[in-house]
Amino acid sequence: MKQTRKRFFIDKKTGSWERAKLVRWAIENEFNTLVFPLDDNFFKGGNSKYIKLAKRFAFYIEAGGDDLSLLMPRSLFLFNKELFRMEQGKRKQKHHFCPTNPKTIELIAGRTRKVFSRAFQKMSPDRIFHLLPDEGHETTWCQCPACRAFRPAEQYLIAVNTAADVLAKMDSQAKLYYVDFDTEPEAARVKTRANMVIRK
């Protein structure tokens, strides 16, 4: 019988010492899964107390969180503003990007491959990723002429579909969890991929 996972998301802003304490707290509160941020040193080969604790107590290890914007490096904004979201006629560096731009999709695919592959070796064998929009900015998406044809929830799915396609090529059994925050699901025009799972 497959064990139900009780997930504890590690905050990317929490330091190593605090994380070690949080892992102990997760143990005491019967969590069995730790979800590390994709931009975390955990996936860059770093070693610390919380990693040892995770292994010692046989946690499932997953990756992700509100890391979607990580797939579009903010450093590209100065010379590639067209890759980023538009708001009231101006391109904005913060929060998400322009998902209907083909060059954006190409860059997201390449970045997904790099970020996900860095996490592969340290994760549980079934490899579960979580890719969520920026917290508090779930509806902060692009308003350029092309993107206006899609609601924020659909723009989010366009981006997640791109990552899901890359993940399917890397590992056909891996899963990508996403949030369905569409208030008009019956009107959705963007279909999700087979390796995507709605996060409850």
Element string (H = helix, E = strand):
EHEHEEEHEHEE
Distance between the termini: 20 Å
| Count of β-strands | 8
**Average predicted local confidence, pLDDT:** 88
- Percent of residues in helices: 25-40%
**Helical element count?**
4
What about the largest sheet? 6 strands, parallel
Report the sheet-strand fraction.
5-15%
Please give the structural blueprint:
Elements lengths: L6 E3 L6 H13 L4 E4 L12 H8 L3 E6 L20 E2 L2 E2 L10 H19 L7 E4 L20 H19 L4 E4 L17 E3 L2
Parallel strand pairs: 1-2, 2-3, 3-6, 6-7, 7-8
Antiparallel strand pairs: 4-5
Question: How would you characterize the overall build of this protein?
Answer:
By secondary structure, the chain is an alpha/beta fold. The protein is 30% helix and 14% strand. It is built from four helices and eight strands; from the N terminus they run E-H-E-H-E-E-E-H-E-H-E-E. It has helices spanning 16-28, 49-56, 102-120, 152-170; strands spanning 7-9, 33-36, 60-65, 86-87, 90-91, 128-131, 175-178, 196-198. The strands form two sheets. Strands 1-2-3-6-7-8 form a six-stranded parallel sheet, with helices on one face. Strands 4-5 form a two-stranded antiparallel ribbon. Helix 2 links the parallel strand 2 (33-36) and strand 3 (60-65). The longest helix has 19 residues, at 102-120. The protein is globular and about 50 Å long. The mean pLDDT is 88.
